[in-house]
Write a structure and sequence with these properties.
Keywords: DNA-binding, DNA-directed DNA polymerase, Nucleotidyltransferase, Transferase. The chain contains 25 helices and 26 strands. With 807 residues, it is α+β, with helices and mostly antiparallel strands. Among the domains are: 211 residues, Ribonuclease H-like superfamily/Ribonuclease H (Nucleotidyltransferase, domain 5); 136 residues, Palm domain of DNA polymerase; 94 residues, no CATH class; 88 residues. A hairpin with a 4-residue loop joins strand 10 and strand 11. The two termini are 44 Å apart. The chain binds a DNA duplex (11 and 13 nucleotides) through helix 3, strand 9, helix 5, strand 13 and strand 14.
Length: 807
DNA sequence: TCGTTCCGGGG
DNA sequence: GTGTACGGAACGA
């Protein structure tokens, strides 16, 4: 059985070093292997192969019209033959594997038969989803052969090339490419240029030639699919040249860039996006990787390359920054600086790739799909399902038909988020159930009822064990070594799959192995486990604060130490069903619970952790944020006069103009062009644009970030960025004031900012106090000694914890 | 002012 | 050729 498990996870064919696969509907395949010869020189071999294109059918009805051209598999045939193989499975399941020498012959036969059967013209197989199950040519080949990408390779073995276009505008109709920075992880760093419009064609040709010469396995950039490739494609069209950046195809010529539309379900609606593909190389957009990363972590300030590179600590000290709209103008005056800027871009892309592509790399060693697809595929439908299909065909077993899926179950509610108390609590502990849903599936053997072979649970079991091994191996390896990164990436890939197993069952009618009853059984048991934990805590006198699907914050008695807390968690964990592990996550000296998922924690080492938007300001004026962090810390420490002082000091600093303008300024991103803004200005004034106009600027581009503050009489003052990187004087009529002088001005609207302090920063501490205490703490009156603003002295104010809900 | 829609990125 | 979403800002009544 173990052998099956490993085949389910990794396929079975041992071919090492596959770095790209290209297959078409005629059953022709090229794949490229990266190998080393005896002397250790690396080479890329191109291998030609064939496969017989296949499709799965629930019956032979549509192909019976073929007569003697319909033949059982194992017997010979001609180019017109359609073969069938019967898999184990009941009526209604996809139990006939149809194949032909050419996929088009196969489809033609099916469409003809279906048209006869339905008495209407059937144009595509997609019109018959209940009757046929089909995957793309590369997937057919990988599923049939048991091959996967990258066997025996480490991430650094891949030859990756990054390139970045610099253009005169964002829109290829209005601008052109004047520079392309190219680097790879084999030592290349080069800048190709076209100072004049007539040079652009040559530039494109040189670029294609360079790519072919370097012959990388992977092409990478940030927003590759959204910007660089469409731009390249459009400019190539204008110059009437082809973008031959692929590896050599069947006819001996380099393969061209191809485009296709992809439907993505982002949010509730489906949206289209254009994808590109090229033979022999995998196209990787680091923007996809960044989105996927942040989907879990939710910590990135923006998805822009520069911001993300800084976030990951990839930006170098000497990194050149230039505002997007200034790049071309800057290039004309200071070309060397723009060259450095563009090379910084590609090297940050390389850094991002190293940091984020490990998991998709590891997934490509498991699932039967192209690496480039796995890099952006959804984990359930895009990765797990192809693995399930591969396993079923390997076992000669039919896939469940639409009738076998279970879609009826009541829509599972998932795990509720609950707020038991708001305000300030001390001695707080976080505990949660490790991998709750996958653990429940394993413990209670809850899988899709239509998964007759139990493949999903097998894969889940095997991945869970393998992941523990990988994690152990990662811990043993030299930190940050190639091996450590490899193990770490593999365990991360496995985690992605493990976590998607539950979601897959509830994915609805599109999932082949959907079982929404099983999915709701998982959430039902999950809720029961959580309820058991909550009751156990309450029974022992703990104060519940907040709970979500698989975790809980609660307060323990005052004098408790970490050992006692751990013992409590272990004790309650021991009462849970075997296989369900309650983990002690951490302890905090205090917590401000604001709303569900919005709280601040103070660790015993004094670190302040703020979670959720409600406790962060969206405007981030520096003075307000400083105040909030200080006030939160004081509140959590019980230092009430510290809170009052922070407030009074901030008010006073504003009144006395001790704060420079930069401290009250906010920074926003422009979205309107000058024309658009001027057209609507009569109706509605917007501070950011007013600030620019006030400074005499008449030209700007959407996307620019503008820092400004509010001065008296509703005047808005623009503070240009300190680097002066943006300063090209043709953009405004009168030269701007000195940025340093502006940053230090004191003519801001004091009363306005005091209101902001009160209404948008102090507000966030409201739950920590009784209404009377809150108003007393944040009143602007400096109390005289005896005028009784405080009903009781400040020292008597204590933070409160208010019960919101009971279990 | 409130709901509703759109966007996120790239030069 | 498939299957994330949520917070903030802009927009429209």
């Amino acid at each position: 059985m173990q052998a099956h498990h490993d085949e389910y996870v990794f396929g079975w064919d041992p071919t090492p070093g596959i770095v790209s696969v290209w297959a078409n509907r005629q059953g022709r395949v090229l794949y490229w292997r990266r190998v080393r010869d005896e002397e250790g020189n690396e080479r890329v071999l191109c291998v030609r192969d064939r496969f017989r294109p296949w499709i799965l059918a629930t019956s032979l009805d549509d192909v019976s019209h073929l007569g003697s051209d319909l033949v059982e598999e194992g017997r010979g045939g001609t180019s017109r033959t359609v073969w069938y193989r019967e898999l184990q499975g009941e009526e209604g399941s996809y139990r006939f594997l149809l194949s032909a020498f050419d996929g088009r012959t196969l489809e033609q036969a099916i469409l003809e038969g279906a048209s006869l059967r339905l008495q209407r013209a059937v144009k595509t197989v997609q019109e018959l989803p209940d009757a046929y199950y089909r995957v793309g040519p590369v997937e057919q080949y990988l599923i049939g052969s048991g091959r996967v990408y990258f066997r025996g390779l480490h991430y650094d073995d891949l030859h990756r090339l990054q390139f970045d276009l610099e253009t005169t505008a964002l829109d290829p109709h209005r601008g052109r490419i004047f520079l392309i920075a190219v680097r790879d992880n084999r030592g290349l760093a080069e800048v190709l240029e076209a100072p004049h419009p007539e040079d652009e064609k040559r530039l494109l040709q040189t670029f294609c030639q360079l790519v072919r010469e370097r012959d990388p396995d992977i092409l990478e950039n940030h927003n590759l699919f959204g910007f660089d490739l469409p731009f390249l494609e459009h400019r190539a069209l204008i110059h009437d040249i082809s973008l031959d950046i692929g590896r050599t195809g069947f006819d001996g010529a380099p393969m061209l860039l191809e485009r296709y539309e992809e439907t993505l379900a982002i949010g509730p609606e489906a949206r289209k996006r254009t994808r590109y593909s090229v033979g022999g190389r995998e196209l990787i957009d680091t923007l996809d990787a960044v989105r996927r990363h942040d989907f879990v972590v939710r910590a990135l300030p923006s998805y822009g390359l520069k911001d993300v590179a800084r976030y990951f600590g990839l930006a170098s000290q000497e990194r050149v920054y230039i505002e997007g709209s200034e790049i071309f103008a800057r290039y004309q005056r200071e070309p060397e600086r723009v060259r450095r800027y563009a090379l910084d871009d590609v090297s940050e892309v390389d850094g991002l790739s190293k940091r984020l592509q490990g998991a998709p790399f590891a997934l490509a060693g498991m699932a039967p799909r192209r690496y480039e697809r796995l890099a952006s595929a959804g984990p359930a439908m895009g990765i797990l399902e192809p693995m399930l299909v591969r396993a079923y065909l390997r076992r000669e077993t039919a896939l469940p038909g639409s009738g076998q899926r279970v879609l009826s179950g009541d829509l599972h509610e998932g795990g509720a988020v609950r707020l038991f108390a708001s305000g300030v609590a001390r001695n707080v502990v976080k505990a949660d159930v490790a991998s709750l849903y996958p653990s429940l599936m394993r413990t209670f053997q809850i899988g899709p009822s239509c998964d007759r072979l139990g493949v999903l649970l097998s894969i889940l079991d095997r991945l869970t064990d393998l992941r523990l091994e990988q994690k152990a191996a990662a811990r043993e390896a030299v930190p940050d070594s190639i091996e450590a990164n490899h193990y770490e990436a593999t365990q991360a890939a496995m985690k992605i799959l493990i976590n998607s197993a539950y979601g897959y069952m509830g994915a609805g009618s599109m999932a082949l192995f959907a079982d929404s009853q099983a999915a709701s059984e998982v959430t039902r048991r999950g809720r029961a486990i959580l309820a058991q934990v909550l009751q156990a805590l309450e029974k022992r006198g703990m104060v519940l604060i907040e709970a979500d699907t698989d975790g809980v914050y609660f307060a323990v008695p005052d004098h408790w130490n970490a050992e006692q807390e751990q013992r409590l968690v272990a004790e309650i964990g021991a009462e849970l069903p075997a296989g369900i592990r309650l983990e002690y996550e951490g302890r905090y000296q205090a917590m401000l619970s604001h709303e569900v998922k919005n709280y601040a924690l103070l660790t015993y080492s004094g670190e302040l952790i703020v979670r959720g938007v409600a406790l962060r300001s969206s405007r981030v004026e520096p003075f307000g944020e400083r105040f909030l962090l200080q006030a939160l810390r004081c509140t959590l420490l019980g230092d009430i006069s510290g809170v009052r002082n922070a407030y009074l000091e901030t008010v006073d600093a504003l009144r006395m103009k001790r704060l420079p303008a930069i401290d009250v300024a906010t920074r926003v991103r422009l979205s309107k062009t000058p024309e658009e803004y001027l057209a609507q200005r009569k109706k509605h004034l917007e501070p950011a644009y007013e600030a620019l106009l006030q400074a005499g600027r008449r030209k700007w581009f959407p996307g620019e970030r503008v820092r400004f503050y509010r001065a008296r009489n509703r005047q808005y003052v623009w503070i240009p960025e300190e680097t002066a990187e943006t300063a090209t004087h043709n953009d405004w009529e009168q030269p701007p004031g000195n940025a340093n002088e502006l940053r230090d001005r004191r003519d801001y609207d004091t009363e306005h900012y005091i209101q902001v302090l009160k209404n948008s920063y102090a507000k966030r501490l409201q739950k920590a106090f009784t209404p009377e205490d809150y108003h007393a703490l944040f009143s602007n009156e400096q109390p005289g000694l005896f005028d009784g603003i405080f009903e009781r002295p400040l020292e008597c104010i204590q933070p409160i914890l208010k019960r919101e809900e009971t279990i």
